[in-house]
Amino acid sequence: MDKNTLSKKLYKTDIIMLMYIASKSEFYNEFKTSTMNIAEDLGISQQSASRKLSELKSQDLLDVKPTNKGSIIRLTQEGVLMLKNIKSEFFEELKPNVIFNGSLVKGFGEGKYYMEQKGYKQQFNKKLNYIPWPGTFNIKLNSGKLKDMLSNIKPITIKGFNEKNRNFGSIYCYPCTIIDNKLLNKNLYNKLKQNGFMGFDNIPPDIEKDIKTNLIIPKRSGHSDDIIEIIAPVYLRKSLNVKENDEIIVTLQQND
User: What domains, with CATH codes, occur in the chain?
Assistant: First the structure.
């Protein structure tokens, strides 16, 4: 592979599109399709599919020939070489997310007290790079068990401490992202719903809210297994414009 190919900057969505084209074309052949078909297969908008094809064509990674009923597409030699020689860290970026959904519910009102403890706040600021809003965003899962979803994910641990003769337990934090339901492609939503929102998939980044959030599991909790708590540096109900019983969709990034 030449230096120009190696220097091309690829994003996760670029690699997903290239791999999709490779699977459809059996790597070296051309095939006829449309942006509508690509959008349905990848769970993205038709506009996003068209834009991504244009971007990859401009980088000489794809050859796209318009026809009356779509396009004839194939990987260029550079595109083939890029996929064959792509480094392992790129595939790590493609590691799918754990996706789940549930309904927004009220908590016990204890989150504010714990989030304001100095022993927790200092560690949150150091390890999560923010001090949480005093309270938690509580979701009642529609299906599945939380411990099953978290089994392959390494948490960020907030250590327990003693304060004024009281013991405060450890808190395990998992970086997560809340999806904007209003921007969620209908086809992708239906696919997720069919899988009970408990499967694995790749979510387009433009529908994820740009808010730092963490799912937290206190070592000591009064909640049942189907209730999860999320923290953020902002008041999530207001920032997300959601209310009691609204559906919330969340992704958790897997790691080793």
Answer: 3-93 (1.10.10.10), 97-253 (2.40.30.30)
Q: Which residues pair with 179 in a beta bridge?
A: 208, 249
Q: How far is CA 121 from CA 116, 130, 158, 213, 235, in A?
A: 7, 9, 10, 15, 16
Burial 62-72 (b: 16+ CB within 10 A, else e): bbeeeeeeebe
How many helices (H) and strands (E) in the chain? Answer: 11, 13
Half-sphere exposure at residue 93, Cβ-oriented, CA atoms within 13 angstroms? 13
The DSSP 8-state label assigned to residue 112 in this structure reads: H
Confirm whether pTM is higher than 0.70. no
Determine the residue type at 124: F
Cβ–Cβ under 8 Å, residues 248 and 178: yes
Tokens standing for 189? 């939503």
Res 52: pLDDT = 92
User: In this structure, what token pair is assigned to residue 84?
Assistant: 């064959």
Q: How many CB atoms lie within 10 A of CB 234?
A: 14
Q: Return the axis-axis angle of helices 46-58 and 12-25, rounded to nearest 10°.
A: 90
**Smallest Cα–Cα separation from 208: which of 153, 172, 248, 246?**
248
Other Cβ atoms closer than 10 A to 164: 4
Band (205; pLDDT cuts 50, 70, 90)? very low
